[in-house]
Amino acid sequence: MLVDKVPFRALTIAGSDSGGGAGIQADLKTFQAVGCYGMSVITALTAQNTQTVKSIFPVSTDFIVDQLDAVLEDIGVDSVKIGMLFSAAIIEAVADRLGKLANAKIVVDPVMVAKGGSRLLQPDATHSLKKVLLPLASIVTPNIPEAEILTGSKIANAVDMERAADQLLEHCQGVVVKGGHLNTESSSDFFANRLGLRKWLHYPRVRTANTHGTGCTYSAAIAGYSAQGLAWDEAVAQARAYLQSAIVAGQSMRIGHGHGPVHHHWRFEF
What we know:
It is built from 8 helices and 9 strands. By secondary structure, the protein is of the alpha/beta class. The protein has a single domain (9-250), classed as Ribokinase (UDP-N-acetylmuramoyl-L-alanine:D-glutamate ligase). The strands form 2 sheets. A 6-stranded mixed sheet has the order 3-2-1-4-5-6. The protein has a 3-stranded antiparallel sheet with strand order 7-8-9, with helices on both faces. The longest helix has 19 residues, at 232-250. The radius of gyration is 17 Å and the shape is globular. The mean pLDDT is 93.
């Protein structure tokens, strides 16, 4: 006799990366890799590859809301990952809908600037991000430049990372400050939340150019593991381990001529 099985459901609200290494594409690959059924709400279309972002076409807020309502009304979600939102209007529309979800697990990756330097969040949208979206977040995952923008403080070492995390906890329930941009021998991230949990995650730095989409992948993996019921500190730890393996496996891939992607399905061969 067949028994109905309800899979773990993870939703990404983010931009599309035509090169396949970041954004919606990376999130959906990650959800599947960590054992979730992935769904998407596309906030912007980007024409990009491993070298550059050629152009960005934002989706209308009405259509973003339609996508979100379509998923929530029929399928439902166990966790939500939020990436590129581009504008204040989009941020406010998404926050309005997600604010009505009860006990939502929400991971916010505050995507602001692409690896090549292109802005993925309009300058005037940072205030909306902090005011209306971060308070809904179960966990926020800024890299060093993003944490500096959000806190207004320079981050040069581990002490600064912990201080930035404490500042961000004034706005959200939990935070992972990612230390990959620091010039240190290891790549270290700091996790903290309002329940008093504080934890460092240290991994060897991998010498590779294939790091496109690491932030998207990391936050999507956190959302995917949290959808399965893991506590936030464990979801972060499992996600970071998954990302490390994806970076290591991605060293040997040759996709494009710039910053290639990580290997999301490193457990399998193409």
